[in-house]
Design goal:
There is one protein chain. By secondary structure, the protein is mainly alpha-helical. It has five helices and two strands. The chain has one domain (20-165): Four Helix Bundle (Hemerythrin (Met), subunit A) (Up-down Bundle), CATH 1.20.120. It has a two-stranded antiparallel sheet. Strand 1 and strand 2 form a beta hairpin. Helix 1 (20-39) runs parallel beside helix 5 (139-165) and helix 3 (59-78) packs parallel to helix 4 (100-118). The longest helix has 27 residues, at 139-165. The protein is globular, with a radius of gyration of 16 Å. It comes from Tenggerimyces flavus.
Length: 170
């Protein structure tokens, strides 16, 4: 199973004095790569394994959830696209027969769609969000929130992966 595809693994650091948009794009790309590295080299069965009892959390569930997060924030909330959920339960619910390869392809497809969807929008552009205190949310805030989701769930993935096969680090 190849879990880091060339179109995702462009994990180089940009100029540390680059502009804000380039920085946010790079940080998001890096968070994706770091998460996928936690899944690299595992079998489909291992990716479906809940390894930190009593939690039912799995690496595959996290991958599916992160695809849902990007879809929800960039395409549904920001662009107001009317899209069905990719997976039930926010992606976390993984069954014994959940297809890891298909989920990986969906993740790559969704992240590419999200990148393309917001590529030409300004970070200060606002979208309606009834849950936001002001009723609006900026694309900048969405980027930071999605990066935050990756950081949080990559931490979870660290623990899951270490329990599966002892692997640690990036």
């Amino acid at each position: 199973m190849t879990w880091i595809a060339p179109e995702v693994d462009r994990g180089h650091r940009t100029d540390l004095a680059c502009g804000e948009r380039e920085m946010l794009d790079d940080w998001l790309r890096l968070r994706r790569v770091f998460f996928l590295r936690k899944c690299a080299g595992l079998t489909a069965e291992q990716l479906r394994t809940a390894s930190v009892e009593p939690s039912s959390l799995t690496l595959l569930g996290l991958l599916r959830h992160l695809a849902e997060v990007e879809r929800e924030w960039f395409r549904e909330k920001f662009l107001h696209e009317d899209l069905p959920a990719l997976y039930p339960g926010g992606g976390f619910d993984v069954l014994a027969d959940s297809d890891a390869e298909a989920s990986y392809r969906t993740f790559l497809d969704e992240t590419a769609r999200c990148d393309a969807a917001v590529a030409h929008h300004d970070l200060d552009e606002l979208a309606d969000d009834a849950k936001a205190p002001t009723g609006k949310v900026s694309l900048r805030w969405i980027y930071i929130h999605v990066i935050e989701e990756y950081a949080q769930h990559t931490g979870h993935a660290d623990l899951l992966r270490e329990r599966i096969d002892g692997a640690t680090g990036a």
